[in-house]
Specification:
Elements: H1 3-17, H2 22-29, H3 33-45, H4 56-71, E1 75-79, H5 86-106, E2 111-114, H6 118-126, E3 136-139, H7 153-164, E4 167-168, H8 180-187, H9 190-199, E5 204-207, H10 212-217, H11 219-222, E6 233-235, E7 238-240, H12 258-263, E8 266-270, H13 277-288, E9 294-298, H14 299-308
Helix pairs in contact: 1-3, 2-3, 4-14, 5-6, 6-7, 13-14
Length: 309
């Protein structure tokens, strides 16, 4: 190495690694400050020092590509976040979801099916009021007796339809009737048949990803059986294992089928991880089911998913 380059290396180490000022370097190396400045500039031009600027947008694009390649997604949308705070990450994720979905909604003539959960409720609250027209919104399953607003499927459908100026169709029947006979009778009603017809022709399905906390909350509703104990999460009430194996729903469940979700023109999941690892496990399991075309999440969640995949 030439004497000049040796000086460049020494000046660069003191400046970039040891955080000396140029004046301090001049004193240590017994050079003028102008010479030190020239050495540092030359170090960049001679590739002795390489300065890399990490663009958060580029980082997110790489995460999006990784999610699509590993899980076979059509689209992945990852938003940049400044930290790990769950509330901030959810806020940024639902903003990104609104940016992604609004152009599709504004096209009009869309049959839009919606699931439930805290993130979906936050997404609906984030949406601006628009009047796209000719859209129809409906839930992906019948009603439950939950008292939490984020788990009232008909109410979420109503709120969503109200925000985008769409027509709303309600599931005027329970998710899980008490008896098999009741289930068969409800399937013969006109209001079930209308919703069932919509489930067969979904343009956009918007879903959340539930974890084991949700499964415990709805243990009786989901009708747990021995084969359900391995479930790590749900998508629109469809349970799945960590490996992405779908678990057959309760025999009396009135909901859109897994095939309905797969055959939708686009099934979009909006999800970000909570502080516990079980949400990451649920997101990975959901991505392995083949039910989803698109995932909208934050970069912190995306990195954890790809690290633990």
């Amino acid at each position: 190495m030439s004497a000049e380059k040796t000086l460049m290396v020494e000046a660069a180490i003191l400046y970039y690694e040891k955080k000396y000022t140029q004046q301090e370097i001049a004193q240590v190396m017994k050079l003028s400050r102008q010479t030190v400045s020239k050495l540092l500039n030359d170090a960049i031009h001679e590739n002795v020092v390489e300065i890399k600027i990490h663009d958060p947008g580029q980082d997110c694009r790489e995460l999006e590509q990784g999610l699509c390649e590993h899980f076979g997604l059509r689209n992945a949308v990852v938003c940049s976040v400044s930290g790990k705070d769950e509330m901030i990450r959810q806020m940024m994720t639902v903003k990104k979801a609104a940016e992604y979905l609004l152009p599709l909604i504004q096209d009009g003539n869309q049959k839009i099916a919606i699931s439930w959960g805290r993130t979906l409720q936050a997404f609906i609250e984030e949406l601006p009021r628009i009047h796209a027209g000719r859209n129809t919104v409906f839930p992906l399953f019948g009603a439950t007796d939950s008292e939490k607003s984020c788990f009232l499927s008909n109410e979420l459908a109503r709120s969503f339809a109200d925000k985008i100026g769409a027509e709303v169709k309600y599931a005027w029947f329970p998710y899980r009737p008490d008896q098999a006979e009741d289930c068969e009778l409800l399937k013969k009603t006109s209001y079930y048949k209308k919703i069932h017809a919509l489930w067969n022709h979904v343009d956009i399905a918007i879903v959340g990803i539930g974890n084991t906390t949700v499964l415990r909350l709805f243990e009786d509703v989901f009708g747990y059986r021995e084969r359900s104990v391995d479930a790590v999460g749900d998508v629109a009430t469809h349970l799945f294992t960590a490996e992405g194996r779908l678990i057959e729903p309760y025999s009396h469940a009135l909901c859109a089928s897994a095939e309905n979700l797969k055959q939708a023109r686009q099934t979009v999941a909006i999800a970000c991880s909570s502080d516990g690892n079980n949400k990451i496990e649920a997101i990975i399991g959901a991505l392995r089911t083949g039910l989803l075309d698109t995932l909208i999440t934050d970069e912190h969640t995306a990195r954890n998913v790809l690290e633990k995949k």
